[in-house]
Design goal:
The protein is an alpha/beta fold and 724 residues long. It is built from 27 helices and 25 strands. The N and C termini lie far apart (86 Å). The C terminus is likely disordered.
Length: 724
């Protein structure tokens, strides 16, 4: 008898439903059933119930990424041989790919997924699965030819019972006897109802699903049953019941193959636990917290009480983690969690959102001071010293408090309110608590509105650039221009960079916006070079943000823009701030060196206001140093700032760096800088930031690259002082 080969099944795992839909549409032409999972844990649960020919696994997922999921898949006997293809948007780095192959991947697909490549790879592995299935079926048929009695005897790993049509046991292999706790012949003649833990009279076998399947010569599978041992103990089983193919009998009976799935059930319970609780502290995790908060909302509405949400962030946790190591950090989090649990009521809920962030839900608040009293208890608890790996460690906590229904009307909004109040507590000196206020609410509303509009600004062409000239003091020539970003939302007032750059940084929108700025500025400079309005020695300066510096595709983006615009690398200058370098100095220095090696100039902006460490000047690949405008403003007023200016100019000459003094607004400032032999200046005394059209008008009045009144040793007269 030839067995019918079932359609193969494919499992697509991705935390973004749009990605799953996209791949599902591509796979419509493939002769296979497509299942999907939105997380690693959901995928592992599906693997316990289905047999898959292939797994398409996303690498970058929250909570459990693709590498962890693949390791767990390979750790189970039933799924260890399923081919896994990683799907990722990451760069094709050798270390990244080797990590995937080490955890069991057989291939990679890189986003955006090309349909033709995806279909080709999938069909190849499905064909392999088909041949494997055919081979397995051939071996099964070979065993069936030897007779079902011989097959049953050799099946020692799984329990095998043979039942007659009335439900009595006619055969039991050694594994069945061992699993059920019976001796050699004790199972023979026993009714199957006893195995199910019930009396025969309570479950007429003639009406059971097993009997009906037997008469219909139909196979039956079930993984939700419990069998009882001889001593009364029960255990979960998965069984398959198949009719005996006896052509000479109208009552064929059945062969029932079963196995103890206690371990699998324990795994499912563990996965359920991991989906709801933080494995380090045992507290509810973010997902469970949101469910508990929603339930608390319902109880609060029902009983007309007030609910308080406390958002805690541990102060100085990063220093402990960086100094003593991650193991010490984990111990600190565990001890902190225990202290927090000891200070709250039994009916209140504490959760760990991730990292060093915790939340506490306080229900049935009796008076307005209740949350404050609890918050102070928690602050006091964490202020006491911790003993970590033999070291006495001191930390603190900043707490934000938001009330329901006063602060917000849903769980996500209340969490955001408490989060903002926590940041206000940090701004007030840390180790204190702050309530969410109407002023914060107004700021949240404004910020969210600005963020929503910012997300569409590029598509709506609402950004534009202005340009401010940089002039060489000795020659009076324009040697560079700085591109400055402006945002003009449709029907709204102009939004200055100080109002939206921080939001763009936090949301990651600064990366596409920054790329747009680079491309527009480079195109504009190339146009001015080609039209003869500027000499090719004049460069374009563009600010580079922290997020852009962290972006792995920055170097390729710069190379692409330079090739596209026809600009030489030396004609582009990238400005960075000390804060951008300080976030991760090692990475920043490496990226900037690669940029500088391409021939692109690197400028350190706002020098003198941050760390201003001489070590940075030594290790950074700098070409230009820009003196912060605050020092220029104090010329003639603060002698110490004048001394610092002189020191910076002298230092830059010794380091062979060009110095640009920003914010020059008066003739007196220019005169002082000229005496210091400062290289170049930038500011309203020369020109305020202008549109490209206005800059062109200014350039047409220039003679040999010098603006009117800025010829060598002349006194500049173009003064357009206004508020930027």
């Amino acid at each position: 008898m030839r067995h019918e080969i079932q359609r193969p099944a494919i499992l697509v795992v991705d935390d973004r439903i749009e990605n799953i839909r996209s791949m599902t549409r591509i796979l419509e032409d493939v002769d296979a059933d497509v299942h999907y999972a939105l997380s690693g844990m959901e995928a592992l649960a599906l693997l316990l119930r289905h047999r898959f020919a292939l797994i398409l696994l996303d690498v970058m997922m929250p909570e459990m990424d693709g590498f962890e999921t693949a390791e767990l898949i390979r750790g189970h006997q039933s799924s260890q041989h399923i081919p896994i293809i990683f799907v990722t948007a990451a760069d094709k780095e050798d270390a990244f790919e080797f990590k995937g192959y080490n955890v069991g991947a057989v291939d990679y697909l890189f986003k955006p997924v090309q349909p033709r490549i995806l279909l080709s790879k999938v069909r190849f592995f499905l064909e392999l699965s088909k041949h494997k299935t055919l081979l397995e079926h051939s071996l099964l048929e070979l065993r069936q030819l030897r007779g079902h009695q011989e097959l049953l005897l050799k099946s020692t790993a799984e329990g095998i019972l043979s039942l007659d049509v009335q439900g009595h046991i006619t055969f039991a292999n050694p594994a069945a006897r061992r699993l059920l706790g019976y001796q050699h012949n004790e199972l023979i003649g026993l009714h199957f109802a006893h195995i199910q833990g019930m009396e025969k009279s309570l479950l007429p076998f003639e009406n059971s699903e097993l009997h009906l399947a037997c008469l219909a010569r139909r196979r039956l599978q079930d993984d939700q049953r419990w069998f009882h041992r001889r001593d009364g103990a029960c255990f979960p089983v998965e069984f398959t019941a198949s009719p005996i193919n006896d052509k000479d009998s109208d009552s064929p009976g059945m062969v029932l193959v079963f196995q103890d799935i206690s371990e699998r059930k324990q795994t499912e319970q563990k996965l359920t636990y991991l989906a709801q609780y933080d494995p380090l502290t045992g507290l509810a995790n973010r997902g469970m917290f949101l469910k508990l908060l929603a339930q608390a909302f319902a109880r609060t509405d029902r009983h007309q009480h007030t609910l308080a949400l406390l958002f805690l962030d541990l102060d100085r946790f990063k220093q402990v983690n960086d100094t003593l190591g991650h193991e010490a950090g984990d111990q600190l989090l565990q001890q902190a969690a225990l202290r927090l649990q000891d200070r709250i009521r039994d009916g209140d809920t504490i959760s760990r959102l991730g990292g060093d962030e915790f939340t506490v839900i306080l229900e049935e608040i009796d008076h307005s001071h209740g949350p404050a009293i609890v918050a102070q208890k928690l602050i006091d608890a964490l202020a006491e010293p911790f003993m970590i790996k033999g070291n006495e460690v001191f930390i603190g906590t900043s707490i934000g408090i938001a009330l329901y229904p006063g602060s917000a009307d849903n769980a996500h909004a209340l969490l955001k309110c408490a989060d903002m109040a926590m940041y206000q507590a940090k701004a007030c000196g840390r180790n204190n608590f702050q309530f969410f206020t109407s002023e914060m609410q107004h700021k949240v509303t404004q910020t969210l509105d600005l963020e929503n509009r910012l997300r569409h600004a590029l598509d709506r062409n609402e950004f534009f650039l202005t340009y401010q000239p940089q002039v060489d003091i000795a020659s009076g020539r324009i040697i560079g221009l700085e591109a400055l970003l402006r945002w003009q939302p449709e029907g709204q007032p102009l939004v200055l960079p100080g109002q939206f750059i921080t939001i763009a940084e936090e949301t990651g929108l600064i990366v596409p916006i920054g790329e747009w700025v680079l491309r527009q500025a480079c195109h504009q400079l190339h146009h001015w070079h080609q039209s003869g309005l500027l000499s090719e020695e004049v460069s374009m300066s563009v600010n580079l943000s922290v997020r852009q510096l962290e972006n792995k595709s920055l170097l390729s983006t710069l190379d692409s823009i330079l090739k596209e615009t026809g600009l030489k690398p030396s004609q582009l200058e990238l400005e960075i701030t000390e804060s951008a370098v300080m976030k991760d100095p090692e990475v920043a220095v490496g990226v900037l060196r690669n940029i500088n090696q391409q021939g692109i100039q690197v400028s350190l902006d706002d020098f003198g206001t941050g760390y201003s460490s001489l070590s940075y000047l030594k290790m950074l690949p700098l070409d230009v140093l820009k003196i912060d405008r605050s020092f220029v403003n104090d010329i003639g007023g603060d002698p110490s700032h004048e001394a610092i200016l002189q020191a910076i100019v002298t230092l830059s000459k010794n380091l062979n760096l060009r110095v640009v003094a920003e914010g020059v607004e008066t003739e007196a400032q220019l005169t002082f800088l000229r005496k210091l032999h400062c290289h170049s200046i930038q500011g309203y005394f020369i020109s305020k930031p202008k549109s490209a059209e206005q800059i062109e008008g200014l350039l047409r009045t220039a003679r040999h690259g010098c603006l009117p009144g800025l010829e060598p040793l002349a006194v500049p007269f173009i003064s357009e002082v206004s508020q930027e």
